[in-house]
Structures are given as structure tokens and as C-alpha cells.
From TrEMBL:
Species, as recorded: Artemisia annua
UniProt cross-references to InterPro entries, sorted A to Z: ANF_lig-bd_rcpt, Ionotropic_Glu_rcpt, Iontro_rcpt_C, Peripla_BP_I
The name this protein goes by in its record: Ionotropic glutamate receptor, metazoa, Periplasmic binding protein-like I
Signal sequence coordinates: none
Family matches, as Pfam families: ANF_receptor (PF01094), Lig_chan (PF00060)
Top-level taxon in the UniProt lineage: Eukaryota
GO cellular component: membrane
Domain Ionotropic glutamate receptor C-terminal: residue ranges: 270-591
Membrane topology: Multi-pass membrane protein
Entry's localization field: Membrane
Molecular function, one GO term: ligand-gated monoatomic ion channel activity
Amino acid sequence: MDYPNLFQIKEDESVMAKNIVALVESYNSREVIFLNEENDCGREILYFLESFQDEGIQISQRIAVPALASDDQIIKKLQKVITSHTTVIIVHMSSLLANRLLFIAERLGMVSEQYTWIITYKTIDILQSVDNEVIESLQGVIGLRFYIPASSKLLNLTARWYNECYIKHPTSATREVSILAIWAYDTIWALAESIQRLEVHSLFVVSYIDSMLLNEVSKTRFKGVSGEFRLIDGKLVSNGFKVVNVIGNRGSTITPKRRTLQKTLGENLKVGVLARRKFENFIDVSIDNNVTTARGFSVDMFNACINSLPYELIPYDDETFDDLIQKVYGKKIDAILGDSTILANRSQYVDFTASYTDLGVGTLARINHNDMWIFLKPLDVDLWLITVGFAILTGIIIFAIEYMDQGSERSPAQQIGATFWLILMTLFFTQREKLSSNLSKFVEFVWLLVVLILISSYTATLASLLTVEQFKLASKGGTLGFHGGSFVAGVTVNNLKFEDYWHKPYYSYDDYAKALSGGGADAIIDEIPYIKMFLGKYSAEYAMISSEPKTSGFAFIFQKGSPFATDMSRQIAKIRENGTLGDLEKKWFQKRSSSSQPKPKTLNFGTFRGLFLISGISSAVALSMVCLLRAKLKVHSIISFLFQNNLLATLHLLPRNAVGI
């Protein structure tokens, strides 16, 4: 809350606006005219605009009436309504101004069956008027007022109120007590009870009396004049609304045509919860002085979707979700709040809302930090061997080219050492040896390209391995843990192809941690929401290494055919879109585990065979060219040698022949 020391003892404006929208929907209208007081609070108007927009209802005209408007001004405003084709009119203004507006509208013949007049909570006090002319002008007007259940406390307060008012103002005394007066009465009662509970403590801890009092008030829960009085997050929990239609000289309660989430209920929803859950933080139930309260991720989701609709938690100690489903089916309770999974066999008896969690099951394992040879794992064995082989081969080729190069001035031994030192240094790109042959430089360039790509790939794969590391799971005969007392032990585990493992149930997050750390289990299978909650506590040592969409996630449960399931599903979709769901996940899951990352693959020769093919062909071509050039030179020298020897021999013989002739 923005003001932690303040309590809001009134209905939330946004909730009240949504109730008006639900009332409009009950008359199947998609257009309304909105009449408001000119100096109305912009925030209240904004709530109406947003609520109508969310439900696809258009405000065809928004007409502001001055608070001190004359009759002529009001008539001009109403003439705009007459010229419009919209027949549903929302009146949101003070009772004094609404009294005059409706009186003039009745004279103009507008308070009739042709129009539907709906007055909001701000205008509803007009129904307390004792003026017959005012009552006559309200015939057929529909209003939304706060629901106060009938009780002996209410009758007693009403009688005392009337007697007090009659003594002081006999002509204007009314038997109806304002809702604000009733809330004020209950608030004083709650404060008095809180102070009474603190009498013992205040004798010893005077310095903390303010915070202790705030804490006691926030925990107050009792049956007051207004109904059940309790606070959640510093706000009064609504007892709902009722729709009133003015008929005759008084208002009568009517039932709208369509029941929605924001609709008034005569009594609170009865919501069943499991009181004992070892997998905490989804719903943690506490019972204090026969008052049941709950906290957790599922509870916050339910409250975010239910829009302050009043409900009562019914705890069950030794039951399962299947048992509670049977109670919903038998109409003993209205709904189930908790981490209940959507299953096909359960849907035969109840209706589920849309899922509010991630779908599927995951495999949880402990991170292995002790692999001393992890630096070798980025490359497969065949790739390591082929890389070393190509390095040697490239060195031999460069040596051969340099040795056959006529410009080389080194001995064979020096040339061999220099060549292989050159190949080793290319791994670090620090080679300084100069090559004399252009062909050997070409071979070195291709080899540098191979080394660059291999090192880049090796670095990326090693980084992935160091991030995710490796999770060791025995191939057969290992121990696989699962959520004890859950359906996960059955078909789900078998569908994940773990039939060869010994299955062992565990019943809490602490059991999971002890089993994985102490060797009691190689891995644990559970639904992803439980794994994410576990990782919020133990994420440094564990990780979700895989996931499968085998389950449909968690959802809320309602009676078969209940409209609440549909409306709650719509609300879940909305809070997904506006980011509320993400905020709740951050709050309860803390360090959220991302969806399981794919296991980094070891690089093999097949990935780089094209690269090595290019290197091999380049080296072969270069060596072939050197050999051909070498052979050409030798042939040329032989021919030259033979040619020179034959020419000398011929010249030597010529004189002899000449003499013989």
C-alpha cells in the first residue's frame, strides 16, 4: 500500500465500476449514455471508461451537468439524450443534482419503458428520499447499492437510529441507516476490539503500541452490522452489491438476467482449501480462533481474479483434491482454491478455469561441479583426433613445400622444427616464422581459417557447458523421485520413458534437496510450477534440465456449469496481458528458472567435414603444384644437361670428320 498506516473502509472504485458494467451487460446493451456531474473526480470516471472498454461497451455520449445547473440547462442536456438512439442511461452524480435531473426527465416523459435509467452508488442515496414527487420520478429506475445482510444487529441499530433522529428531526426521520454510518460503526467496533486484545501487551511494550495496534486491526474479523468485517491488504473486503428497482414507494431487490463475477450474491462463496500442504508457497492455510486465512501464489491469483467478491474459506485437514472435487460435485462447496491440476477425469465432475501456471512436467537434477575434464568435452573424440592429424599433415605439407623451394636456406632438420613450431603457434595466432614459398603461405592461410572457426566453436560450446554444465543421470537402474501423493507417479512418469528406473516418492521441497544432494535420487520428476518454486529456494545447486508438455497446469475449480469458471478464465487472460501474473511470479518464485535450456551438443567431425575438406584439397593442390614445378625443373635441367653434352660431343667430333674428308 502507498499509506501503510491507513485502512480503506469503503468499496474500491474500480470494483464498483465493474459492477455497473455487469449490470449493463445483464440488459444485453452494448451502448450507454453517461451522465455525470461536471466537477466529478477524474479517477472515478476513468474507472468507468476502462471497465466499459474492457467489456466492449461503447459510451455513445458523455454529458457533464454543472452542479448548480438551472432547469433550462438540465433540459438542454436531456434533449441530447432524446435525440440519441441509445436508451440505457448511467447517472453518476450527487443525490441532490440527480433528484432535480430525474424530476425534469419525468416531466419530459423520459422516465418510461423506453429508457433504462441506472443510478450508481454515488446517486443511490436518492432512494432514501421521503418526498412523494421524488419517489414518483424514480419509478422504474434501477440502482446498485452495497449489500448489507439482514441481521438482529442491523435491526437493533436501525431502531436506535430512527428513535434518535425522530427526537431531533421528527419530520425528516428515516428508518434507513446510511452505509457510511454502518461502516463507521463497525470500524469503531473493530478498533475497540483490537485495543482490548492489546491491553496485556501494552503494559510491557509501550514503544511498539502503534505497530501492534495496526497489526491487530489488520487481523480483525467478526460479524458486524455490515456483515462479515475483515481487511485484506488494508482494504475492507466487500460483502457484495444488490440491484434495486424502484417500484411504488420503495425499492425492491431484483435479480439481473446474467450472473457475472461482479454480481451480488446473497451469501459468500464457499471455497474449499486443503489445510495441510507440505509443498508450501502456493497456498499456506492458517486457522486462528476459528478464522481461516490463506496466503501464497494461488491465493494472490484468486484474489486478483475474483474482483473483491466475498468468499469464505472452508479448510479440510485430511482430504485430497479429488475428495474436494466430490464435495464441489455434491454442491457442499462452491469452489476449490489451490494448486489443483487440470485432469481429464476431474473435468467430468467440475469445471476448471484457464490455467494460471506453466504447463507440463520437468526433470529436476543437481548440478555437477566436479568434472575435471570438461575442457575436452566441447569437441568429440573423432574431431580431436582429426584436428591433430590435420595439424601434422599440414606441417608435413608446408615442410615439403619449403624444402623443395629453391629459396630455402635452412637445413632439413631446421626446416622440420620451424614448420611444426609454426603449426603450433597458429592455435594462438602468434606465429612469427617467415615462409619463403607463396604456396606454403596459401596452405598456412587455409589452416588459419580452420583454426579460427574451430576455436570460435570450441569457445561457444565450452561456455554453454560451463553455464549449464552436465547433469549425470544413470542410463538404467537409477532412482527417480516424484511428487508423493500426486498423480505424477502414474501415467505421467511412464509416459516420460522412465520405466527402467526405481521410483521413489518425496513429500516436500526439503525432501527433494536431501535426496538429490545425498544421492537418494538421480533426478526428480514433478510439475513445472513446483520445480520453479523449489528453484526459488535452492537454485544455486539445482536446475531443471528438461520439460515435457504432459500436464495442463494449475487452475481454479467451480461447480459444473458455473459462470464463474468462464469469468475467472477471462480475468486470468487479462492479468497475463497486463503483467500482473508476471509480478506475482516474481514475488513468489523469487529466482525464476527459465524454461529448460537444450543440452549443449558436443561438436563432432560431421559438423566440420566441409571445412577439413577445403583444407585437405588446398594442401593437396599446393603440394601437387610444388611437385609439378619441381618435376618440371628437373626435366628441364636434365634436358639442358643432355643438350649441352650432345652439343659438345658434336663439336668435338667435327674436326675429325673434317680431317677424314
